[in-house]
């Protein structure tokens, strides 16, 4: 069974988590958030966006953070969620197995663009200075379905000639970017792959100290995490939702900073993610 089949098996086991979400679409918009931080932090950091969305739509907006990325995918597939904020790779999986469609990405005042990067980090006082120095050390990825926390850094390692399964003395999935950052800072692992913006937030909030960590590798541009909806969501609600998100401005959106609205995106924007999956020999076509 290849890696993508394992991801879907994991997703199918997540279904019981969402029985509490079985409410009618006309009563509330059910929105899923991937666990890039712990569940409570994700909801708190997204609350102002959700409040504005609720006011503009004139209907309750109910957030939910799954225990892992695949839990959100399965909830979309089983129609327990209407909309979700997904990572680029988890979107590609959701598009394949759950009929999810990317329709918008956040644009922040900080960057003015819709792309970010994966970083491989180690402690500043570590002897690890390059990918070659990772051999024999412990390493943390975030989640098997995380673009910046797994897919892109793994592809970068393999393109440089290093196979994670044989390069590292021990390899774990931490469950969130925050957990990976703290694992490095607290010497639980020697290095980790994380999203640049989440590291920046951790530094700004003092979760880790300036100068405590260093970056030893940076990925190419990764398309921004999309907002997605179920393909069969009511067309009138889709139109209202896209317009409402475009008007959500001047409030913080998770780790991305202050919003300057959401702009339209399309499925084709994530072809680079599919290409990266090909580098890792992950056959998305077999997931139908």
UniProtKB/TrEMBL annotation:
GO cellular component, one term: ATP-binding cassette (ABC) transporter complex
Keyword Signal: yes
InterPro entries in UniProt: PhnD (IPR005770), Phosphnate-bd (IPR017797), Solute-binding_3/MltF_N (IPR001638)
Domain of life: Bacteria
GO aspect biological process, one term: organic phosphonate transport
Keyword terms: Signal
Pfam families: Phosphonate-bd (PF12974)
Family of this protein: Belongs to the phosphate/phosphite/phosphonate binding protein family.
PANTHER family per the UniProt record, alphabetical: PHOSPHONATES-BINDING PERIPLASMIC PROTEIN (PTHR35841)
Protein's UniProt name: Phosphonate ABC transporter substrate-binding protein
Gene assigned in the entry: phnD
